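wait is this the right file?? whatever heres the structure
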C-alpha cells in the first residue's frame, strides 16, 4: 500500500515538473508578445511624430523662403528709393545753382532798370511843349516820346521776366523738395516693413530649430524603441528556438499541405492577408529561394503577393517581421509549407495577431501570421 502511495506521489511530481516548463514558457511568450506589442505601438507613435515634425519643418522652411523673398524685394525697393532720393538731391542742388544764376541775372536786370529809371527821371519832368521846342522837329520829338514809352515797356517786361523766372525756379525747387521728402517717408516705411519681416523670419527660424530638435528627439526615441523591440523579438525567437533544450515541446506534428489555420486580419493588419516568414535561428531570411528549390511549398492557393521580402515595409533582417505578404479571400485555408512540428500557436494583439510557428527540424522554422 505504501509502495502504491509512493508511486502515485512520484507520478504526480513528475507530471507537475512536466507541466511547469510549458506553463512558464507560455507565460514568458505572452509577456514578450505584450512587450513587443507595446513597443510596436510606441514605434508607430514616434514615426507619426517624426513625420509630423518633418512636415512642419517643411512648411516653416517654405515660409522662411517666402519671408526671404519678401525681404529681398523690399531691399530692392529700398535701394531704388535711395537711388531716387540721391537723384532728387542732385536735382535740388542743380536748381539751387540755377537760382543763384538767376539772382546774378536779376542783379544785372536791376542795374539796367536803375539806368532806365534814371533816364525817365531826367525826362519825366520835362513838359511836352518844352520837349517839342527843344527838338529839332516834331518828328524828333515824337521819336523821343516813343523811346520813352519803349523804355517804360522794357522796364515792365524785365520786371515781369525776373519775377516769373524766380517764381518758376522756386516752384520747381519746392516740388523737388516735396518729392524728396515723400521718398524719404517711403524709405522709412519700407525699412519698418523690412524690420517686421526680419523679426518674423527670426521667429520662424527659432521655431524651425525647435521643430528639428523635436524631430531629433523622436528619432532618438524611435531608435531606442526599435533596439528594444529587436531585443525582445530576439529573446522571443530564442525562446521559441529552445525546444532542442526541452523548453518547447511539439503541440502536434503536421505534414506538408496540412491546414493549420485560415487567412484573416488579426493583429496589426490593414486587411485580410497572410504574413509568411522563414527563420533560421534568430534571423528572418528570404523565403523565395526555399520555395523555388522545393524546400517549402506555398502556404495558400490562388493568392497574390502584396509585398515581397525586399518590400519597403518588410523590415527584413531586423528579426521582425521580415517575410512575404500575400492576399486571398478572407478565410482561405493556410497550409503547412513542409513537414514539421507546431511549436507555437498563440496571439500578439498589436503585431502578428493569431500566428503559428512550425519547426521543420532542419534548422528552419516557418511563421504564419494574421490568421483568424
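ok assuming it is, sequence goes like this
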Amino acid at each position: 500500500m505504501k509502495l502504491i502511495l509512493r508511486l502515485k506521489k512520484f507520478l504526480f511530481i513528475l507530471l507537475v515538473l512536466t507541466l511547469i516548463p510549458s506553463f512558464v514558457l507560455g507565460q514568458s511568450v505572452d509577456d514578450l508578445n505584450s512587450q513587443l506589442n507595446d513597443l510596436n505601438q510606441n514605434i508607430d507613435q514616434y514615426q507619426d511624430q517624426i513625420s509630423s515634425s518633418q512636415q512642419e519643418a517643411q512648411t516653416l522652411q517654405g515660409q522662411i523662403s517666402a519671408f526671404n523673398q519678401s525681404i529681398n524685394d523690399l531691399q530692392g525697393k529700398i535701394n531704388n528709393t535711395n537711388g531716387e532720393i540721391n537723384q532728387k538731391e542732385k536735382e535740388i542742388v542743380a536748381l539751387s545753382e540755377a537760382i543763384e544764376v538767376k539772382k546774378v541775372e536779376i542783379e544785372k536786370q536791376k542795374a539796367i532798370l536803375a539806368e532806365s529809371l534814371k533816364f525817365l527821371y531826367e525826362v519825366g519832368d520835362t513838359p511836352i511843349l518844352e520837349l517839342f521846342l527843344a527838338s529839332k522837329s516834331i518828328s524828333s520829338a515824337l521819336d523821343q516820346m516813343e523811346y520813352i514809352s519803349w523804355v517804360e515797356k522794357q522796364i515792365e517786361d524785365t520786371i515781369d521776366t525776373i519775377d516769373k523766372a524766380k517764381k518758376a525756379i522756386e516752384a520747381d525747387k519746392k516740388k523737388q523738395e516735396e518729392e524728396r521728402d515723400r521718398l524719404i517717408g517711403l524709405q522709412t516705411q519700407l525699412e519698418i516693413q523690412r524690420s517686421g519681416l526680419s523679426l518674423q523670419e527670426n521667429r520662424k527660424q527659432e521655431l524651425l530649430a525647435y521643430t528639428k530638435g523635436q524631430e531629433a528627439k523622436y528619432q532618438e526615441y524611435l531608435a531606442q524603441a526599435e533596439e528594444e523591440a529587436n531585443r525582445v523579438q530576439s529573446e522571443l525567437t530564442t525562446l521559441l528556438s529552445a525546444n532542442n533544450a526541452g523548453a518547447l515541446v511539439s503541440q502536434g506534428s503536421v505534414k506538408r499541405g496540412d491546414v493549420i489555420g485560415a487567412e484573416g486580419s488579426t493583429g496589426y493588419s490593414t486587411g485580410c492577408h497572410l504574413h509568411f516568414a522563414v527563420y533560421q535561428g534568430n534571423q528572418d531570411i528570404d523565403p523565395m529561394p526555399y520555395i523555388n528549390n522545393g524546400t517549402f511549398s506555398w502556404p495558400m492557393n490562388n493568392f497574390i503577393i502584396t509585398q515581397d521580402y525586399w518590400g519597403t515595409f518588410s523590415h527584413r533582417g531586423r528579426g521582425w517581421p521580415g517575410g512575404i505578404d500575400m492576399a486571398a479571400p478572407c478565410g482561405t485555408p493556410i497550409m503547412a509549407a513542409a513537414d514539421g512540428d507546431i511549436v507555437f500557436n498563440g496571439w500578439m494583439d498589436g503585431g502578428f495577431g493569431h500566428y503559428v510557428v512550425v519547426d521543420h527540424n532542419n534548422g528552419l522554422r516557418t511563421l504564419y501570421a494574421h490568421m483568424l
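The longest strand covers residues 340-348. so i think its the right one actually
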